[in-house]
Design a protein that fits this description.
Order of helices and strands: HHEHEEHHHHHHH
Strand order of the largest sheet: 1-3-2
Number of helices: 10
CATH class of the largest domain: Alpha Beta
Helix content: 40-55%
Oligomer: single chain
Length: 295
């Protein structure tokens, strides 16, 4: 799936109208250099020095914090271990590390609802596939684009390309700032720009990769839904959650991720492929007249 997504992004980069040839070549070089960590680390961390007891949760937390502090101090003066992970294998998460130019997917996220080995490809590409795409796009978003293929902090974009990119990105920032979460509460579009851009671009290349993967294969309805509808349902299901008003108020001030409702509806309302899959008309709520598109 990752290589199919990489191939789809490679095609997109080669055909972007706003990217010049010099920037395009460096973008392709960076794309090919992205390293992968999947499932679990090559070397397991030894947690045996941590003293864990049944009497005090607070003491257990302090013991764990002390262990991590000692571990970090011991790294001083030693060579960098590029096999190290920034999360544990059972953590339900994925991340992009621009300094090492790598994307990481833990065993914890490689299970339902993100990835289901018993589900159809459409569902898995809409879920885990879009997450893979999300992490790939982070290499070229408002922050990732500041790092070169070798992880160095390098401005490898022409000024003209950067201006065109920022103009396209501003559409996404404006879109998410407009959403009313109730009672006049709004997200900060600039705060959630990177994650929102990665969601939109990730969905676009995941959909292209899915279509490529089913070429020559029979189409099957599942639970009354077409493969295209299953793809977008897969995306919606991974973000389904209940959230209190208080939690939402904290998140819009501190979290670079959009609230889950608009993490689903926001990017999908920009996609003609979604509108086609669900027969949406031009004036329907899930079809934006001012469609945002970067990748």
């Amino acid at each position: 799936m990752i290589e199919n997504l990489r191939s789809a992004l490679r095609t997109n980069i080669r055909t972007l109208s706003w990217m010049s040839d010099s920037t395009r070549q460096q973008a392709l070089t960076k794309l090919e250099a992205i390293a992968l960590k999947i499932g679990y680390p090559e070397k397991w961390r030894d947690y045996s020095p941590i003293e864990i007891g049944r009497t005090s949760f607070a003491e257990n937390v302090l013991h764990g914090s002390s262990y991590l502090e000692r571990t970090n101090i011991e790294k001083i003066g030693r060579p960098i271990d590029r096999t190290e992970w920034e999360m544990t294998a059972p953590t339900v998460n994925a991340y992009n590390n621009p300094v090492w130019n790598e994307i990481v997917f833990s065993a914890g996220i490689l299970q339902p609802p993100f990835y289901d080995p018993n589900a159809d490809d459409a569902y898995n590409y809409g879920g885990m596939g879009a997450v893979i795409g999300h992490e790939l796009i982070h290499d070229f978003d408002d922050q990732g684009r500041q790092f070169a293929a070798d992880g160095s902090l390098t401005d490898w974009w022409t000024a003209e390309d950067a201006a065109r990119f920022n103009e396209a990105a501003s559409c996404i920032a404006d879109q998410f700032s407009e959403y009313d979460l109730g009672g006049g509460l709004h997200m900060d579009g600039k705060l959630v720009l990177g994650e929102s851009m990665a969601d939109l671009g990730g969905l676009e290349i995941a959909y292209a990769a899915y279509l490529k993967s089913i070429e020559g294969k029979p189409r099957q309805m599942v639970d009354g839904l077409t493969p295209e509808q299953r793809f977008f349902t897969g995306w919606a299901r991974i973000w389904a959650e209940n959230e209190t008003r208080e939690s939402m108020e904290i998140r819009v001030k501190t979290d670079p991720h959009p609230v889950s409702r608009y993490r689903v509806n926001g990017p999908l309302s920009n996609l003609p492929t979604f509108a086609t899959a669900f027969q949406c008309k031009a004036n329907d709520p899930m079809v934006r007249s001012d469609r945002c598109d970067v990748w």
